[in-house]
Design brief:
heterodimer; A: about 280 residues; mainly alpha; disordered N terminus; B: about 300 residues
Chain lengths: ~280, ~300
């Protein structure tokens, strides 16, 4: 069937490459995803509903999606600032700054969680100043947002920075010479050009936040209704050997993360068309 | 290149639309404050906490504890296997989708990205549902004497899933950009597939491949959620380094926890160092290719 529509290429390895890829994807992707859906479908509809929509589960979804969204929005601001400074200014320590920004990509998130919980407790380096001000960055919702912001920081910087670097200085000069004020140049010329990359960065940071477990585990304290994220619910069901219920919650999370990725892809395509 | 010229021009005050000096200083200062507070201080904190009780205790924490030693050994075996598997897949997938046109091609590219969107805990759950004792294949495999969940093969499987996209994502755009001209020429001159890969394709993609492998490896070492679910956390058997950090943290053994964390941090710093070197190689290669093209045109 395939050979009919394939233009023949003199290069070898089509069959081998295709075979390896499909075998790999089937065993590692389709089979496991299928297993979750299949196991969740052994529940009755009311059983499924009870598993995925308890009050405790709703609180966990709200925290997962809310904290990821807040952290990703914060990263849009911080990331734009860092990308701007790195792309446009020459200053002492620029390369050092540039290199450090990639650390959250390379650092195991468990280490990030461990360190943030240590820094923000009452006796910690940051906590000793912040806790008296009622700012609790450990074992709180704020702590969850903080580690997610750390984990997602490089995404926005690394998507916006190349776009900023590729913009010609002449565009701004042209805008200025045509009488645009500095503020008009930023908001009418630069921002629209940067917008698609900002949205992409937001999407990547958001998606990363939804799935993050390692770092949150250390800073949240896992208090039900307060600082419990959705993946924790799955772990608890598993440890109680309630596999079908765990699979049901996993289906909701899968739908949520794949759905938001799809939505954001669509937004991105739209903003690119209108840019 | 372009950006460096722009930056130099701005530094010399050459652009009309430049920000005033006070604003520039403010923005640069804010950047240092953010990166310092969010990244540099945590980095220093790991080593201060790990080395706080003295160098001797630090080394004892790492080497005297057999469970910690085993977790280091575990991470150093699981991560390379996962990286190797994903390197094979990455090359096969990139070759297939960039060198041939067939229906479903873009679907494969999209599917390769799916692991990025799946929460690691869900990844762990998926494999427990397949290969655990309550899972679809678990009991049958057990009769054959094969144990996957709560054993090292499970750790390898989930780590491979989580790091699946890295090499492929790096190679696909690179091979798309390189085009197939050199490979077609080699085949028409009678190169066999083996020669084609080792003499033509690999030398062209080696830096990009190395870049993908480095990123894949960093993620494989650091993976927490997925291995947390399938490891069963059996002391001295299925702990990886990040899980060991967590275990020691739960036991309030902070110096030991930070000692293992410091080792992971050193690996992350090594990753960053190698990445910087590779980026320089890749930039040099692109410049060289541009020159070659210019020469061949003139």
């Amino acid at each position: 069937m395939l050979s009919l529509s394939v233009r023949r290429s003199p290069l070898p390895g089509m069959g081998l490459g295709f075979g390896v890829t499909m075998t790999y994807l089937s065993l590692l992707l389709f089979l496991p995803l299928g297993a979750v859906v299949l196991r969740a479908s052994t529940l009755t509809p009311s059983g499924f509903w009870a598993a995925v929509w308890s009050e405790r589960a709703r609180a966990a979804y709200a925290l997962t999606f809310g904290a990821s969204a807040i952290a990703a929005v914060a990263n849009m601001g911080l990331g734009l600032l860092l990308a701007w400074v790195l792309a446009r200014y020459e200053f002492w320590g620029r390369r050092f700054l540039d290199a450090l920004i990639d650390l959250p990509f390379a650092l195991p998130t468990a280490v990030a969680g461990l360190v943030f919980s240590g820094l923000f407790v009452e006796a910690g380096w940051y906590g000793q100043f912040l806790v008296p001000l009622e700012i609790r960055g450990a074992y709180s919702r704020l702590g969850v947002v903080l580690v997610l912001a750390f984990v997602g920081l490089p995404f926005v910087v690394r998507t916006v920075q190349p776009v900023l670097e590729s913009l010609e200085g002449e565009i701004e000069e042209a805008a200025a010479s045509l009488g645009a004020s500095r503020w008009q140049t930023y908001s009418r010329v630069l921002l629209p050009a940067l917008w698609p990359s900002l949205v992409t960065g937001f999407a990547l940071a958001f998606a990363r936040g939804l799935g993050e477990y390692g770092s949150v585990q250390f800073v949240s304290g896992n208090m039900p209704f307060k600082t419990e994220i959705a993946p924790v619910l799955i772990v608890q069901r598993l440890e109680a050997f309630e596999y079908a219920e765990a699979a049901a919650i996993a289906c909701v999370l899968l739908a949520g993360s794949l759905g938001s990725l799809g939505l954001i892809n669509w937004l991105q395509r739209r903003s690119r068309r209108h840019a | 290149m372009h950006s460096r010229q722009n930056r130099a021009l701005r530094a010399a005050g050459g652009l009309v639309a430049d920000e005033p000096l006070w604003l520039r200083c403010l923005l640069i200062g804010a950047s240092f404050a953010i990166v310092g507070g969010l990244i540099l201080v945590p980095l220093i904190y790991v080593f201060v906490q790990a080395l706080g009780p003295g160098l001797h205790t630090y080394l004892d924490n790492l080497w005297r504890d057999p469970d910690t030693r085993h977790s280091i050994w575990m991470t150093l075996t699981v991560a390379p296997i996962a990286v190797l598997l994903n390197t094979v897949l990455g090359i096969a997938a990139a070759w297939t989708v960039t060198r041939f046109r067939f229906p479903g091609r873009t679907l494969i590219v999209t599917l390769l990205d799916v692991p990025f969107a799946v929460s690691p805990i869900v990844v762990g759950l998926m494999f427990v549902l397949l290969f655990g004792m309550q899972g679809y294949f678990g009991p049958a495999l057990r009769e054959w004497g094969i144990k996957i969940i709560f054993a090292w093969p499970g750790l390898v499987l989930v780590t491979t899933f989580v790091t699946l996209p890295f090499v492929a994502r790096e190679l696909i755009p690179l091979m798309e950009a390189l085009g197939a001209d050199e490979e077609l020429a080699a085949v028409s001159l009678g190169a066999n597939p083996w020669q084609l890969f080792w003499r033509v394709t690999l030398p062209n993609i080696k830096w990009g491949l190395a870049y993908g492998i480095i990123q894949c490896n960093a993620r494989a070492i650091g993976e927490f959620g997925a291995v947390y679910v399938v490891s069963g956390r059996i002391d001295g058997e299925t702990y990886t380094m990040p899980l060991r950090v967590d275990k020691l943290f739960q036991e309030y053994n902070m110096p030991a926890s930070y000692a293992v964390a410091s080792l992971l941090t050193l690996m992350a710093l090594a990753t960053l160092g190698i990445k910087l070197l590779l980026e320089r190689y890749i930039a040099a290669q692109i410049e060289l290719d541009d020159q070659k093209q210019l020469e061949s045109q003139s």
